[in-house]
Amino acid sequence: MGCQEVGTWMVKTWSDDNPKARLMERKRTQIVDAALKAFLESGYAEASVNHIADAAGVSIKTLYRHFESKAELFTAVMEAACGDPQDAPAEPAWYSEPPETALPVSGELYLRHALSPAQLALFRVVVRDAHRFPEIGRRYHEQTIGFAEARLSGYLDRWKDRHSWFIRDQRLAAQTFIQLLKAGFDDVMLGLRAPLDEEIVERARHSSFVMFLLFEAGRL
What we know:
By secondary structure, this protein is mostly helical.
């Protein structure tokens, strides 16, 4: 057992096999589940941490032992609903594939994640309240778009010389690919319809084709 400082609280830490560690993890899960429901129902601004604690069946003191701030709790909700980037493999399987295979595969994976119901629901929460709470916009961008851009940028840096591509800015190229992927899905982002599997596959294929043209022309 040890102690870790979180904000103004000193939190005891336990080994994984300690029953109290399992209790702490269960309470953390209860808090995150209650917070997810609160954020989706009320938005970030209107969701009350006191109500979240009540819904989770814990005290407000316990909530703040796990999460230093409301923004940190929202980050935990994003990780639970959409996956924690730190849990992702260092290199996805498509990293070892040539661009003609890797770009369509990575594009399809990105779209299926970005257009999933859980991701879209959180996206709408962020859009609604980020102008008042820029921190949640920053955290959302880092964990979703920023993470995807970094992965694509790293891949392009690895493969550009093998194809004799002159890419001035790998990050800009990654951003361009993501914007191409999202084109045509505005109505999906607004919740007006669900995306079709075939259009996701076709959008990933077409966006990859456009990227190849841009690479060959040295436009990125």
